[in-house]
Amino acid sequence: MNKMKRIWFYVFLVCLLIVSNYTVASTGTTNTDGGMYVVNCESWISLRAYASTDAPVIAKIPLGDMVNIIDDNDPCYQKMIFAHVRYHGNTGYALYSYLTPHCTLYRVDNCNEWISLRSAPSADAAVITRIPLGEYVRFVKAGSNGYYYVYYKGNLGYALAEYLS
Fold first, then answer.
1. Closest Cα partner for 162 from 127, 101, 121?
2. Neighbours of 148 (CB within 10 A)
3. Which residue(s) pair with 57 in the sheet?
4. Of 3, 30, 40, 163, most Cβ neighbours within 10 A?
5. 119-150: per-residue pLDDT in tens?
6. CA-based R_g, the chain, Å
7. How far apart are CA 85 and CA 69, in angstroms?
8. Neighbours of 19 (CB within 10 A)
9. Which DSSP string do the residues of 73-115 spell out, in sequence order?
10. Is 11 exposed, middle or buried (CB count within 10 Å of its CB: 0-12, 13-18, 19+)?
11. Mean pLDDT, rounded, for 80-92
12. pTM of the model
């Protein structure tokens, strides 16, 4: 029976991915990358060698980054405490309480050609990259000084909220 549940779960996921690939990005969407996002932490969470908070830390996963779920072979399966994940080539375990499949997307708007993704919430901060008009960014958390901390094509940084809709 457990095997049958897993088969139906994977069929459901495939159907969900197919349907979600045809939807237009908007705020409050579920990701279409097949992973889960790191949330509810100050700056990073631990990728651990096995499903325990006492396990050695393999890597630090930054706030806003995405992990890919491998399976639910969590020894605490009934409680779903840990997710078995892959992150930048490393395989390990991360606490589910810091992961979510949901994201909020904002479209770059109200500018001529592009906006700057900056290293800090300030117009004086270093520019990480430019984000063209019409592109989407993933909201990670509210910043200060009118900035949002966002994710764009592998980069985390600050973008002025007034240019996002």
1. 121
2. 21
3. 48
4. 163
5. 999 999 999 999 999 999 988 888 889 999 99
6. 18
7. 4
8. 10
9. --TTTTTT-EEEEEETTEEEEEEGGGEESEEEEEEB-SSSSEE
10. exposed
11. 90
12. 0.62
